[in-house]
Amino acid sequence: MTKGDESGAAVVDFVLVAALVSVMFLALIQLAVVLHVRNTVADAASSAARYGALADRSTQDAQDRAELLLKTALGDGYAQAVSAEVTSSQGVSIMSVSILAPLPLIGLFGPGKSLEMSGHALIPK
């Protein structure tokens, strides 16, 4: 062997680069999961608010609808802190649905009640 022989260095380079690319790929997948959960919770809140604002529905119907949507799309752990209420702003009644859900940090697991989303809909007179 000569003094600058680098035989076997390609294997080490491959392992280091492959590990870095794998970590970056997993981080990208986790970001996609977080965005999916966030968008699903926001959609469930706004859809439930619109459903509860219908003429023959109540706040309990809106809360049940949000829980059903979350359980169907994400699982039981995401439908534990759902609330619905009717508020009034400048003489207009508004159905408001709020959801507190876990923010997924590793897979779908993460600290509970750290993602808060709410949906609003006008209640027709």
Structure description:
Strands 1-2-3 form a three-stranded antiparallel β-sheet. Helix 1 packs antiparallel against helix 2. It is built from two helices and three strands; from the N terminus they run ααβββ. By secondary structure, the chain is α+β, with helices and mostly antiparallel strands. The N and C termini lie far apart (89 Å). Strand 1 and strand 2 form a beta hairpin.
Unreliable parts: none
How would you sum up the global shape?
A: rod-shaped
Strand adjacency order, main sheet: 1-2-3
Task: List the helices and strands in order.
Answer: HHEEE
Beta strand count: 3
Keywords:
47% helix, alpha+beta, membrane, transmembrane helix, 125 residues, 3 strands, single chain
Describe the SSE topology.
Elements: H1 9-52, H2 59-73, E1 81-89, E2 92-101, E3 115-122
Antiparallel strand pairs: 1-2, 2-3
